[in-house]
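User: I'm new to structure prediction. If I give you an amino acid sequence, what do you actually give back? Let's try with this one:
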Amino acid sequence: MTNETLRQSLISQIDAFCEREGISPTAFGIAAVGNKHFVFRLRENKVTSRNMEEAEMYMRRYRDRKIVV
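Assistant: Good question. You get back a string of structure tokens that encode the predicted 3D arrangement of the chain. For your 69 residues, that looks like this:
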């Protein structure tokens, strides 16, 4: 997969996550990576791969926590 494909996939995952959980992209960015502009910057291709990985890990941990509880 190319970096662009990964970025687009992550954007789709985040959009679905926010809709499912009823949170804004701003709230997601704060919770996932500590940056309220994260999703906007991701759409503009101005984030690091580390931040992208942190966002993916946040969604995974969130999902796993919901399954356990």
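You can read the tokens as a compact description of the fold. Here is one thing that stands out. The CA atoms of residues 17 and 59 lie 8 Å apart.
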